[in-house]
């Protein structure tokens, strides 16, 4: 009799643990992420199946130690109120806010694709609430496979990308969101690249230069839209100070061209890229980790020796910097033979000082962000939580015992409401309409510079002197071709330029900043 009761109680406990097992444990790709203060946030993404878009929001408290096998995610999906489910978006940090832009959005009520023009939303990490900021001016057309990136003066930049429901429409424009003035502005660029770019990474240097690395481009030839990966030794840099583009050919070792990789900037001026795929089968780009030194006149690629190699090859993941650590999260596991078939549900941390992957994270580090932690409050909170849990289980156990004694009836445990959105055919079609390659849409949140990087403004970062693109450098062969009905250029410029590089703006000077 007592045995049966204990058994039943254990079953209930087990069911409860399933009940509280949260989405953070699921495989996920095309999500967004951000580090802000001591918190590492994961937002949205495609979960469990590529047809499910999520509105998950959860975070890790980096002021606490944890084992990387079992990070203690704090799930705030329900309370934070993300305005729509979202995948393939990009996010960037400013102050205590995370701005998320682009990608696919799904209505939370109708569970259908939300086709409204707005894809911009703001997460306030102080109040832990989402909102849709009211911004003046004409926002960029809805798009995907681009990045939003911030400088430290509340300006956000969005460059190129692909129209949401038409893969033949690539953009050549750049928009600036002035978040202090809440205004969108179409940027008048000098010497803008004549080719569009998607699935790239964008890294803001302390000097105000954005380094665009890799990704793919498209050209139109004989009614065919040909896509190819951009040559990773030919960077394009955008100087936000004078809205001018500069091409740069890098020095150092040769690495695979790639798309859907990630990039973080260390405080000493190294851009560490990770993962990504290449070719029409989305095979893993090698080597998986490479370093671009931005303190040399021509930036220099190198491939460090990694002391531990247990981390899978990934794409469609995210990477963020926290102190000396690069946090790589989720994404699809790639290989050298087939398109990715498996999603990752893990995070990994690289010590960027000596390029070693760690297995457990200790908060006992002298990271400048660590001082606001109130441990007494936390301990009190934990004690309270413990008491509450004990009381709940006590009551539950008593109830159960009573019930069992009385009736011996089955106890039914409610299944949790899902925070995921089953896709209607539409989402499937949306994905299917992508040109044959199954895996090339990316959304990687860049390393958003955070307060830990204050000393980095002292690094010297040079800007290339060349202002013309070397047309003799041929792009890699296309990996995919798509028949398009219109014979003319499919690029939607949205700007006063029509794709001729090297011509200065005829319009008023860039920006309203001083
Ligand atoms: C977040 O909320 C706090 C408290 O209301 C406010 O002071 C802060 O300005 C908000 N941050 C953003 C980015 O809106
Ligand atoms: C990621 O992996 C999942 C699971 O195998 C797959 O269904 C999905 O298509 C992959 N995503 C991409 C972009 O390749
Ligand atoms: C890397 O450096 C950390 C200290 O920053 C040290 O604890 C760790 O053992 C080093 N790892 C290797 C493989 O040298
Ligand atoms: C951390 O900082 C303290 C002083 O604030 C210093 O005594 C200690 O050696 C530092 N530890 C490490 C690992 O750098
Ligand atoms: C990329 O460009 C470099 C020169 O900038 C050239 O040497 C290399 O062959 C190119 N790679 C590919 C794959 O086209
Ligand atoms: C794409 O890959 C397949 C092999 O899976 C190959 O036969 C085909 O030629 C490739 N297409 C292009 C455009 O490279």
Structure description:
This protein has 514 residues and is mainly β. A five-stranded mixed beta sheet has the order 27-33-32-29-28, with no helix packed on it. 12% of the residues lie in helices and 31% in strands. The model is unreliable at 9-22, 369-374, 406-458 and 493-514 (pLDDT under 50). Among the domains are: 143-249 and 470-502; 251-361, Neuraminidase, CATH 2.120.10; 370-459. The N and C termini lie far apart (80 Å). It binds 2-acetamido-2-deoxy-beta-D-glucopyranose (6 copies).
Q: Layout of SSEs?
A:
Elements: H1 2-20, E1 28-29, E2 32-36, E3 39-43, E4 46-47, E5 53-54, E6 57-61, E7 66-67, E8 74-75, H2 77-80, E9 84-87, E10 90-94, E11 97-101, E12 104-107, E13 121-124, E14 129-131, E15 143-144, E16 147-150, E17 155-159, E18 162-163, E19 174-178, E20 183-186, E21 201-204, E22 209-213, E23 216-221, E24 224-229, E25 234-239, E26 244-249, E27 251-252, E28 262-265, E29 270-274, E30 277-278, E31 283-284, E32 289-293, E33 300-302, E34 314-315, E35 318-322, E36 325-329, E37 332-333, E38 342-343, E39 347-351, E40 356-358, E41 360-361, H3 375-406, E42 420-421, H4 425-432, E43 480-483
Parallel strand pairs: 27-33
Antiparallel strand pairs: 1-4, 2-3, 3-6, 5-42, 6-8, 7-41, 9-12, 10-11, 11-13, 13-14, 15-18, 16-17, 17-19, 19-20, 21-22, 22-25, 23-24, 24-43, 25-26, 28-29, 29-32, 30-31, 32-33, 34-37, 35-36, 36-39, 37-38, 39-40
The protein binds 2-acetamido-2-deoxy-beta-D-glucopyranose (6 copies).
Residues 231, 233-234, 249, 257, 473, 476 line the site of one 2-acetamido-2-deoxy-beta-D-glucopyranose (NAG).
Region (Disordered): 445-514
InterPro entries: Kelch-typ_b-propeller (IPR015915), KLHDC3-like (IPR052637)
Protein name: Galactose oxidase
């Amino acid at each position: 009799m007592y045995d049966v009761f204990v058994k039943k109680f254990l079953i209930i406990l087990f069911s409860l643990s399933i009940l509280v097992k949260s989405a953070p444990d699921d495989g996920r790709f095309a999500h967004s992420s951000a580090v802000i203060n001591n918190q590492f946030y994961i937002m949205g993404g495609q979960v469990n199946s590529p047809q499910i878009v999520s509105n998950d929001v959860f975070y890790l408290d980096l002021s606490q130690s944890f084992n990387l096998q079992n990070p203690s995610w704090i799930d705030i999906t329900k309370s934070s109120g993300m305005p729509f489910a979202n995948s393939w978006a990009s996010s960037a940090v400013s102050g205590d806010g995370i701005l998320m832009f682009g990608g696919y959005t799904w209505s939370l009520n109708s569970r259908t694709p939300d086709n409204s023009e707005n894809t911009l939303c703001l997460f306030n990490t102080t109040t832990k609430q989402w909102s849709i900021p009211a911004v003046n001016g004409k926002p960029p057309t809805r798009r995907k496979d681009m990045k939003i990136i911030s400088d430290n003066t509340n300006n956000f930049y969005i460059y190129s990308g692909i129209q949401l429901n038409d893969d033949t429409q690539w953009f050549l424009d750049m928009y600036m969101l002035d978040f202090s003035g809440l205004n969108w502005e179409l940027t008048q660029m000098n010497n803008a690249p004549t080719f569009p770019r998607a699935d790239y990474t964008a890294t803001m240097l302390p000097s105000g230069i954005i380094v665009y690395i890799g990704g793919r481009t498209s050209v139109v030839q004989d009614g065919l839209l040909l896509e190819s990966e951009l040559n990773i030794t030919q960077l394009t840099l955008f100087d936000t100070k004078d809205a001018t583009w500069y091409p740069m050919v890098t020095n150092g070792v040769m690495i695979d061209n790639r798309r859907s990789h990630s990039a973080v900037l260390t405080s000493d001026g190294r851009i560490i890229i990770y993962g990504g795929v290449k070719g029409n089968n989305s095979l893993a780009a090698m080597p998986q980790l490479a370093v671009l030194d931005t303190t040399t006149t021509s930036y220099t690629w190198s491939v460090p020796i990694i002391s531990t190699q247990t981390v899978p090859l990934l794409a469609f993941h995210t990477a963020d910097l926290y102190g000396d650590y690069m946090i790589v999260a989720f994404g699809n596991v790639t290989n050298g033979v087939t398109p990715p078939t498996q999603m990752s549900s893990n995070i990994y941390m690289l010590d960027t000082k000596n390029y070693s992957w760690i297995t457990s994270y200790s908060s006992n580090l002298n990271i400048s962000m660590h001082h606001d932690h109130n441990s007494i409050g936390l301990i009190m909170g934990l004690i309270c939580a413990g008491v509450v849990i004990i009381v709940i289980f006590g009551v539950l156990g008593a109830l159960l015992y009573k019930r069992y004694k009385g009736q011996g009836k089955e106890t039914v445990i409610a299944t949790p409401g899902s925070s995921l959105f089953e896709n209607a055919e539409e989402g499937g079609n949306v994905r299917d309409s992508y040109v044959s390659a199954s895996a090339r849409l990316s959304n990687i949140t860049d390393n958003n510079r955070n307060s830990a990087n204050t000393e980095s403004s002292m690094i010297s970062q040079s800007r290339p002197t060349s202002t013309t693109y070397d047309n003799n450098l041929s792009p890699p062969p296309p990996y995919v071709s798509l028949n398009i009905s219109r014979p003319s250029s499919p690029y939607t410029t949205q700007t006063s330029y029509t794709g001729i590089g090297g011509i200065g703006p005829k319009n008023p000077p860039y920006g309203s900043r001083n």
